[in-house]
Amino acid sequence: MKIYTRSGDKGKTSVIGARVPKDDIRVEAYGTVDELNAFIGQAAVRIGQESGEGWERLAEELAVIQQELFDCGSDLSYANPQPDQLKVTAEMTERLETWIDRHEQTAPPLTRFILPGGSEAAALLHVCRTVCRRAERRVVTLAASGQSCPEETLRYLNRLSDYFFNASRTANALLGVPNVEYERGARVFGRKDAKE
């Protein structure tokens, strides 16, 4: 089977149910999700070099997320999906919330904003976080255009960026490496007036 088809040589590609320019906002949305998946693959390779229960759990979570991002891309690729064609579910988003909460318990409490870094594994997870936020912005643009856009995919991506933030903190904690705090920032977490 040949990998190239030449069908996109004039700047158009196929989504499910339509032929569109390669810079169409739908293609930009699922293309950014695909880019995120590639960065997760890079982070997973690094995390797979560590041993221990915490690392194994992180690796397993990333493997699940990579599969689910393919589901996100599939859902976004429909020009006019029917509800029974969509793969991303509320249960997927809820599972992310469970993982986020568990990572929150593993990492030291936040007191200040943190910068990407500390360890290579954490830095790679922060790259995933920022690319995830960009994917979310692309999906928001798609939704605002009036075109069909699956709502659960947007919720999933919103929660996923939070997951990467806490997973990066867990990676540093597992390595015994402190997070890099933003030095010129005030203490913004854990203050009595933080909820006011």
Automatic annotation (TrEMBL):
Pathway recorded for this protein: Cofactor biosynthesis; adenosylcobalamin biosynthesis; adenosylcobalamin from cob(II)yrinate a,c-diamide: step 2/7
Family annotation (InterPro entries): CblAdoTrfase-like, CblAdoTrfase-like_sf, PduO-typ
GO process terms (BP): cobalamin biosynthetic process
Domain Cobalamin adenosyltransferase-like: 3-170
EC number: 2.5.1.17
SUPFAM superfamilies in the cross-refs: Cobalamin adenosyltransferase-like
One Gene Ontology molecular-function label: corrinoid adenosyltransferase activity
Catalytic activity of the protein: 2 cob(II)yrinate a,c diamide + reduced [electron-transfer flavoprotein] + 2 ATP = 2 adenosylcob(III)yrinate a,c-diamide + 2 triphosphate + oxidized [electron-transfer flavoprotein] + 3 H(+); 2 cob(II)alamin + reduced [electron-transfer flavoprotein] + 2 ATP = 2 adenosylcob(III)alamin + 2 triphosphate + oxidized [electron-transfer flavoprotein] + 3 H(+)
Entry keywords, A to Z: ATP-binding, Cobalamin biosynthesis, Nucleotide-binding, Transferase
Enzyme class of the recorded protein, top EC level: transferase
ATP-binding as UniProt keyword: yes
Subunit record text: Homotrimer.
Family: Belongs to the Cob(I)alamin adenosyltransferase family.
Protein name: Corrinoid adenosyltransferase
Species of the source: Cohnella zeiphila
